[in-house]
């Protein structure tokens, strides 16, 4: 069985209805596949035309269903569409053995009028066909390819339009004049992707309650160099913030070691000597957690290599977005997080606390630049992933 790359496009209507988390949760929990990439698109007419052309030639669809797909693309995926909504669509790439068939049969599911909730389309899609064959209502929930050949042609299309029609969609949504519109960064941390689980989708669903819109997405494998830049401001903070903890640990360790009393000021003095080393140790622990590599002793070249851990970066946009996301995420320490917030439910400790969120507009821009999630991106990871995959599938001379 050979490794395949498969794709899923979450439809604009399901994004608008904040069903994204539920769909992502199904994809990650029902399929033993690796999340390989993510990107937002706002398809142009040219991209819709190219995609529709592949559907029109799909002979394994019955004519009524084929026409329903073509009508759906024309009605809801174009910049000027029937619902007068932003035509945002989220692309997710999955890698693994038999990925195309798994997504098609086990996860996305078939288009059927049988109302069952065992697949994504069964739960989030609608297909109402009356006796005689006429389709009265159609919402596929996700778009997928139904064969390896079709998927590969769609991947080529998605890669070709990735830069012109995809990326960060900060100018797609509309807001009342004078609104304090912000774009903030959220990163779902490595613990969410350690095992086959709906946890990432559940967290996205919790963030959806803010009413904000996802306008950017990228799968991250942070390098040590990126993580060191990203968390760099913590280095100085750790020296002062952790100093009291160092003094307490020294007191606990040394109280029974010596036969004389040690004054609190002496513990403080010893903590001052060790504060820098302790801060560096804690900083390195965070970098290792986010990347899978201990930065101590690594060469500059090794620090530039992609890490072994998977994270998912999302950009949320809307009125007062930074505050709304921070409230939903809640306190860094999960023991102090309010009930029903992301960290109260999914965090384990101060470091493994489910997700990161920017705390200011300036930091959001700084962090986005580090992970290349800006409108003027330096690299297009989806194009790189697809190009590499399809190059390996090309026949050799």
Any overview of this molecule?
The structure is a single chain. The protein is α+β, with helices and mostly antiparallel strands and 397 residues long. Strands 2-3-1-6 form a four-stranded antiparallel beta sheet, with helices on both faces. α7 runs antiparallel to α18 and α11 (232-241) packs antiparallel against α13. It has helices at 12-16, 20-30, 45-56, 63-77, 99-108, 120-124, 148-160, 162-165, 199-208, 224-230, 232-241, 243-254, 264-291, 300-303, 321-329, 342-346, 361-370, 381-393, and strands spanning 3-10, 34-41, 89-97, 126-129, 135-139, 142-143, 181-188, 213-220, 311-319, 355-357. Among the domains are: 1-167 and 380-397, Nucleoside diphosphate kinase-like domain (Alpha-Beta Plaits), CATH 3.30.70; 231-289, no CATH class. The mean pLDDT is 91. It is 46% helix and 16% strand.
In short:
It is built from 18 helices and ten strands.
Strand order of the largest sheet: 2-3-1-6
Instruction: Name the poorly predicted regions.
Output: none
Q: Which CATH class of the domain at 1-167 and 380-397 is shown? A: Alpha Beta
Shape: elongated
- Tell me the radius of gyration: 24 Å
CATH fold type of the domain at 1-167 and 380-397:
Alpha-Beta Plaits
Number of helices: 18
Indicate the proportion of strand residues: 15-25%
Mean pLDDT: 91
Helix content: 40-55%
CATH architecture of the domain at 1-167 and 380-397: 2-Layer Sandwich
Biggest pleated sheet: 4 strands, antiparallel
Helical/strand content category? alpha+beta
């Amino acid at each position: 069985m050979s490794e395949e790359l498969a794709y899923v496009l979450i439809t604009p209507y399901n994004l608008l209805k904040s069903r994204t988390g539920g769909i992502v949760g199904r994809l990650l929990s029902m399929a033993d596949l690796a999340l390989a990439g993510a990107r937002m698109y706002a398809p142009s007419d040219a991209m819709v035309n190219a995609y529709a052309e592949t559907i029109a030639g799909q002979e394994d669809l019955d004519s009524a269903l084929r026409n329903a797909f073509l009508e759906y693309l024309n009605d809801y995926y174009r910049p000027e569409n029937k619902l007068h909504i932003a035509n945002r669509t989220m692309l997710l790439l999955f890698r693994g053995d038999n990925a195309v068939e798994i997504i098609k049969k086990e996860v996305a599911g078939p288009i059927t009028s049988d109302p069952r909730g065992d697949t994504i389309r069964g739960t989030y899609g609608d297909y109402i066909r009356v006796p005689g064959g006429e389709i009265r209502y159609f919402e596929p929930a996700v778009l997928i390819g139904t064969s390896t050949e079709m998927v590969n042609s769609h991947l080529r299309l998605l890669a070709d339009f990735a830069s012109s029609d995809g990326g960060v969609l900060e100018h797609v949504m509309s807001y009342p004049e004078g609104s304090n519109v912000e774009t903030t960064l959220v990163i779902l941390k490595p613990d969410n992707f350690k095992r086959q689980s709906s946890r990432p989708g559940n967290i996205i669903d919790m963030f959806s309650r803010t009413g904000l819109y996802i306008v950017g997405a990228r799968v991250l494998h942070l390098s040590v160099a990126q993580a060191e830049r990203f968390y760099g401001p913590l280095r100085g903070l750790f020296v002062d913030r952790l100093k009291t903890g160092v003094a307490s640990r020294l007191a606990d360790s040394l109280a029974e070691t010596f036969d004389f009393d040690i004054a609190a000021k002496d513990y403080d003095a010893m903590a001052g000597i060790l504060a820098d080393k302790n801060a560096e140790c804690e900083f390195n622990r965070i970098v290792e957690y986010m990347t899978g590599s201990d930065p101590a002793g690594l060469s500059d070249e090794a620090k530039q290599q992609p890490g072994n851990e998977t994270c998912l970066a999302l950009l949320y946009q809307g009125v007062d977005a930074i505050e709304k996301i921070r409230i939903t995420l809640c306190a860094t320490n999960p023991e102090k997080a309010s009930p029903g917030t992301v960290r109260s439910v999914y965090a384990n400790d101060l470091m493994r606390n489910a997700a990161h969120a920017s705390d200011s507009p300036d930091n959001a821009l700084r962090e986005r630049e580090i992970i290349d999630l800006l409108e003027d991106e330096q690299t297009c990871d989806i194009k790189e992933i697809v190009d590499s995959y399809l190059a390996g599938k090309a026949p050799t001379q």
